[in-house]
Amino acid sequence: MEDFFLDIAYKNKTVRFKVVNPDAPLSTLVDNLRHAIGEDGRLIFDFPSIDQTGAPLDYFFGKEDPDVHEIRVLRPRIGHEDQKLKDYNVRNGDLVYLVPDPIPG
Q1: In what order do the strands lie in the sheet with 57-65?
Q2: Is 76 in contact with 26 (CB distance < 8 Å)?
Q3: What percent of the chain has pLDDT over 90?
Q4: Cβ(8)–Cβ(22) under 8 Å?
Q5: Residue 1 and residue 14: Cα distance in Å, rounded?
Q6: Which residues, at least 6 apart from 95, have a Cβ–Cβ distance to it below 8 Å?
């Protein structure tokens, strides 16, 4: 199996990540990213757990819709089904965004 890479953008930083299992649920991939450590031993991305208003944050992947140039959130679950990258037509080498999403309180 060939290596699978995604360019992941968050804030002003874009990092190329090797995805070990592209068939893993999106929630697993985001969770792994939350704990990803760079060569310097520090977390690659800083994931605040609360926003400026104190609301808890969840994170999702997003992908630009080329027709309208908006970032579409890739929901990790639809109904009872875990969603995967292929469900959103995300391919090797694609650019995806980390999108913080306040959890309604």
Answers
A1: 13-19, 4-10, 95-102, 57-65, 70-74
A2: yes
A3: 58
A4: no
A5: 25
A6: 6, 7, 8, 9, 14, 63, 64
Position 104 pLDDT exceeds 80? no
φ and ψ of 36, to 5 deg = -70, 135
Q: What is the pTM of this model?
A: 0.84
Which alpha helices (DSSP H) does the chain contain, by range?
A: 26-34
62-70 CB contacts, 8 Å cutoff, 24+ apart: 62/96, 62/97, 62/98, 62/99, 63/88, 63/90, 63/94, 63/95, 63/96, 63/97, 64/95, 64/97
Q: Tell me the chain's radius of gyration from C-alpha atoms.
A: 14
Cα separation, 52 vs 20, whole angstroms: 33
| Mean pLDDT across 21-33 | 93
